Amino acid sequence: METKSARREVYIVDGARTPFLKAKGKPGTLSASDLAVNVGRELLARQPFSPQDIGEVVIGCMMPSPDEANIGRVIALRLGCGKSVPAWTVQRNCASGMQALDSAMKDILSGRHDLVLAGGTEAMSRAPLLFNQKMVNWLAGLWGAKSFVAKVQQWGRFRPGNLVPEIALLRGLRDPMVNLSMGQTAENVAYHFGITREEMDTFAIESHRRVAAAQDANLFTDVLPAFDTRGAYFVADDGVRRDSTMEKLASLKPMFDKKFGSVTAGNSSQVTDGAALLLLASKEAVKKYQLPVLARIVDTEWAGLDPAEMGLGPVYSSTALLQRYGLRLDDIDYWEINEAFAAQVLGCVAAWESDDYCRKNLGLDKAFGRIDPARLNIDGGAIALGHPVGASGARIVLRMVEILKRKQAQRGVATICIGGGQGGAMLIENVSEVTA
């Protein structure tokens, strides 16, 4: 394995995101590229270099609009990076934004580029409605009918049920290998570790409370206003429910296992639109442009596990990452675990504390350790902010960078579960300047 001293270093020199905007039952006024351009325009405007000086643009996105093919390239051109700056799009489901950062990091490590704009975007409210298969087959028959008589016969085969649409978002949030929705996999995690409905709801309320407290303390300085073409503007995350109570959450019915379940809309992440972008730079670029250094990306790890318990992905990826550097859970000052579901985050914490789970699944001789709740998602998370699938992996990295600076702490881990049975983790170090 390449030694640390032989590697180039990758620095985070700036970053920002849009407000995360809760879907309200109809398509939002901003497309995924609109969201990224809103935040990217101001992010690049405050830099001492030109957008054309960027080596490449890498964007994570799972559901671009039909006119946003290779949305990374669309965003790069709209941001004024110019025709000569290559751009590409990555997909790793819920971790697409983190994958973009990892891909950018690798290109800097290899020496291919010195300055990369990377992150993620998603307009989940714009997920399309699809024709069902009956309608698709009927249309194929109609288009294939050559004579007037054949067309009339095909129209006679039309049934009202053909018009019932399929919701692409629900299809996308269902694992095809185990035929379970993401919410059902969260129910599996809750059952595995005996996590109660009360524990989930308590965690959800705390997420809202922490986001509200961070907003009141003006801690979300990375959030930039977003504007649409109709003159509307958005300045803050709008999913936080300041009036959330245990009584209100208890009144909600389970969504995924209606008879026996505990996972509800209230203790799950919200369907949301948003974008988060970061600028990554090599030591050479930092010195050339005299860039401020916010943090250093130490390393990234990806891991796979049973898709039926995909929410435990952070356990596998983070454990492997920390073991590579001889670290344990309590060596990490702060944690960002993306809150896909309260049950999923609580399940990760329980798995690390379980001797039995760590022996059977991680090859350890005992429990890996415990995460202090006061050091986990200290500014709240996706239950209150929302989870725009392509952007969340970048958001939690950006939040970790801010927390490390604010708390004058050394190390942080941003980690995320991934639909399909994977986990991603990024180890981040607080540094203020590059080393010689």
Explain the overall architecture.
The protein has 436 residues and is an alpha+beta fold. Helix content is 36%, strand content 19%. The chain contains 15 helices and 16 strands. The strands form 4 sheets. Strands 1, 2, 3, 4, 5, 12, 13, 14, 15 and 16 form a 10-stranded mixed beta sheet that branches. Strand 15 (411-418) and strand 16 (422-429) form a beta hairpin. Helix 1 packs across helix 2, helix 3 (96-109) packs across helix 15 and helix 7 (182-193) packs parallel to helix 12 (342-353). It is globular, with a radius of gyration of 23 Å. The two termini are 23 Å apart. Mean pLDDT is 95; it is low at 1-5.
What's this entry about, in short?
The protein is α+β, with helices and mostly antiparallel strands and 436 residues long. The protein is built from 15 helices and 16 strands. The strands form 4 sheets. Strands 1, 2, 3, 4, 5, 12, 13, 14, 15 and 16 form a 10-stranded mixed sheet that branches. Strands 6-7 form a two-stranded antiparallel sheet. Strands 8-9 form a two-stranded antiparallel sheet.
